[in-house]
Q: What sequence folds into this?
């Protein structure tokens, strides 16, 4: 995937850095667009990537934004997104955040508790506004993914329990909110679509219950969560939007005025980003062969936080010999380890190493831990 030309270019840039392949994200967005129907709307989950260049591309494909803090809303407004295309989720929105989002007339709030509904109602009243809300329901669906990124099982902090949907009609009578939607998001990095099929069944049952009780639902927001291939990214650069979107379109029974909303993050941007590093040192210690990179868990925290695996390649070594390495960063934490016993070509100080699938939850989750500098991003069409 990376030619000798890329290696030459990368060698002239100060490492580490994020590299975004613009063709990859554009092709992926094209295939997403191709899978959508007129009554579908996608809000890009901006927590996965807040990079301005990436947002500019996302915007050019007419996607809206799924934000989880007012700062994310502000960031996207500053990038030219229309407030009417922004939805606001999050289990702990502050009064200040709610006030500002009401002021900006965002599309709707994804509300995570009945107490929050009361607060949004009171704050809307003070601003003499009528606010549209969707209620996030925790459907108690198990999804085969890392426990730390499951969000729709009964012990997870998100949403209101299914048993409480009977309360919606009372809350719908509050003076300054309109309950116009339901919202689900069952987790992230889900590759087997069967939990989503269960979600469709629960969605249909929930809507028919609500409509039978006088609550009119306009937006059915099924969240995001579609996974990507971290093991073989080069052969799977485009996400399986076709099957994912088709599943919801074929299983959810829609009335004329209803639409299905999606909040996709990882599946849109995951494969377009790469973390490019240089090898600072190699060393043998007891029975381990270490490669110490100049990038660390402050640039890509997923392996340290979730035990996630990423494909890693040495793109400048000319050796054919394969060795097993522990590939680590410079941070003073043992968990600053990208991979253990990872088979890679024989590597030496100064070699360039690429970590794949870093377009989602890498740059946006980066930190200055150990007071390390922020690193730059470069783009395939400008270097
Ligand atoms: C409410 C909500 N919607 C959407 C997403 C995006 O998920 P993904 O990047 O897996 O598509 C998340 C991510 O955790 C989320 O919390």
A:
């Amino acid at each position: 995937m990376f030619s000798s030309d890329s290696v030459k270019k990368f060698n002239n840039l100060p490492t580490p850095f994020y590299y975004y392949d613009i063709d990859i994200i554009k092709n992926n967005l094209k295939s997403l667009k191709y899978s959508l129907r007129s009554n579908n709307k996608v809000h890009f989950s901006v927590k996965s990537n807040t990079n301005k260049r990436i947002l500019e591309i996302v915007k050019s494909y007419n996607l809206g934004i799924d934000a989880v803090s007012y700062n994310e809303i502000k960031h996207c407004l500053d990038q030219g997104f229309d407030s009417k295309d922004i939805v606001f989720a999050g289990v702990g929105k502050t009064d200040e955040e709610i006030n500002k989002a009401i002021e900006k007339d965002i599309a709707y709030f994804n509300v995570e508790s009945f107490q929050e509904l009361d607060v949004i109602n009171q704050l809307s009243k003070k601003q003499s506004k009528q606010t549209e809300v969707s209620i996030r329901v925790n459907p108690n669906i198990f999804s085969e993914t890392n426990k730390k990124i499951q969000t729709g099982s009964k012990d997870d902090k998100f949403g209101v329990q299914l048993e409480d949907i009977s309360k919606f009609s009372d809350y719908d009578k509050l003076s300054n909110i309109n309950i116009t939607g339901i919202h689900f998001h069952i987790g992230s990095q889900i590759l087997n679509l069967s939990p989503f099929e269960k979600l469709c069944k629960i969605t249909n049952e929930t809507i028919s219950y609500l409509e039978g009780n006088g609550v009119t639902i306009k937006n059915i927001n099924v969240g995001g969560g579609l996974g990507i291939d971290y093991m073989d990214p080069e052969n799977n650069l485009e996400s399986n939007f076709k099957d994912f979107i088709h599943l919801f379109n074929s299983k959810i029974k829609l009335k004329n005025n209803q639409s299905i909303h999606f909040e996709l993050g990882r599946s849109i941007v995951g494969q377009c980003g790469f973390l490019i590093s240089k090898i600072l040192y190699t060393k043998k210690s007891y029975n381990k062969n270490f490669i110490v990179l100049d990038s660390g868990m402050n640039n890509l925290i997923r392996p340290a936080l979730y035990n996630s695996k990423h494909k890693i390649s040495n793109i400048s070594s000319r050796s054919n010999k394969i060795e097993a390495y522990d590939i680590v960063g410079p941070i003073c934490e043992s968990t600053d380890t990208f991979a253990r016993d990872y088979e890679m070509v024989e590597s030496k100080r100064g070699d360039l190493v690429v970590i794949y699938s870093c377009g989602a939850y890498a740059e946006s989750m980066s930190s200055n831990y150990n007071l390390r500098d922020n690193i730059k991003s470069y783009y395939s069409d400008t270097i």
Summary: DSSP finds eleven helices and 17 strands in the chain.
